Amino acid sequence: MSDYLDTSLLVSLIVEDDHSSAALAYLELQPEVMTSGWAAAEFSSALGIQQRMGRITADDRAVAETRLDQWLSGTLPAAVLAADDATQARSLLRTIGTPLRAPDALHLVICRRLGATLASFDLRMVEAARELGLPVREL
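Below the sequence we write its predicted structure tokens.
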């Protein structure tokens, strides 16, 4: 079974932050990983926010985007969104006890559909995954 890398993990793998060491150590031990096109889109959004807040420069952002593109095209399988994923995410948001953001619900729906283990630094999403009975690798 593969681990599904959410956006929090992707960002820490590509951009130096407080979780980068743990993310890199995890990746060395977990050879079967995947992500989604959705995670890549949210990655770009996260970098845009970091740039607007002055945490990274436009050049840093461009380098990080290129690194992710290279990684995705070379080694990391990226699942595409299914037609029903957004509908399933909305349903999840309406019924789950753990409050989630829509992007996080979409990650969980994709993870569930793929039969993957969620790998994340996002404690709220980890809690929601456990509530759904999804396997979790909390980092």
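The chain has a mean pLDDT of 93.
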